[in-house]
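Hey all, quick one. A colleague (J.T.) asked me to put the pantoate job into the tracker so the inputs and the structure tokens live in one place instead of scattered across chat threads. No bug as far as I know, just bookkeeping. Sequence used:
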Amino acid sequence: MEVAREIPGVRNAVRIARSRGRRIGLVPTMGYLHAGHLSLIEAARRDATFVVVSIYVNPTQFGPQEDYARYPRDEAGDLQKCAAAGVDLVFLPSDEEMYAPDAATSVHVSGLTDTLCGPCRPGHFDGVATVVAKLFNIVQPDVAYFGRKDAQQLAVIQRMTRDLNLPVQIVGCPTVREPDGLAMSSRNAMLSADQRRRALVLYQALCQAQRSIQAGQRQVQAVLEEMYHIVSQAQPTRVDYISIVDPQTMQPVEHIDRPVLVALAVRIGNTRLIDNLLVDPMGSAPPSR
Ligand code: PAF
């Protein structure tokens, strides 16, 4: 496995791989790799023949009051996991490598970013779209992999890729959960044992929403009230949102008459957690956890 900290090293490794007929797959991450990231790497290994993982805690997607400084980092552990997972190249840039001190350009995707995490985290999606566009330009992958846990991020990246005619296929991969249902996230490492137990309400609220909708509930407000009730039992520090939106536009729906994205962002202690479920009202067999 190669490790490149500078852009010319990445470009050179990718150029050689492509000259050998390899299909380049990129898994962009902020590190502290867990089973969710490893599932993206597995997906990349299935349909690409040269797998690149970028590990970069991107400062421009964190607000001034957010958890950039305490975001977990483990470079040595991440490199071991990448090597064991069969990654070909890891890109580990510094801030200086990624951003010129007088960088003045950013990518803004409008509309899709007006709801859910957009208003709660001003500038967040500009930071994500900009760094992902830069990673696409640096690595020039044929295909890139993102988790569906960050459903709004995935929609933003798909729209940006289409609008800017970036020649990259975007693949969304299923959310990976702990055995009790908590969505895998690097931020889970910031939870105390008690907070970790309370964090389960996110998944419990989503499952309740799914049960209600699939049992015939079509009123958005009724579903949201049940979810708030479940979430409030964990005494969250803050509920950023609990919403039911159209999975394509991310706009709130008025009536549940087609598949909807049920999504929430909740702070347990100082840790902000997000999760979502795509719920088809005509579906059956809701999870019983
Ligand atoms: O999902 C993440 O880990 C990040 O937002 C991403 C896509 C790597 C951009 O920094």
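Adding what we noticed when we looked at it: Residues 285-289 have pLDDT under 50 and may be disordered. The CA atoms of residues 77 and 224 lie 40 Å apart.
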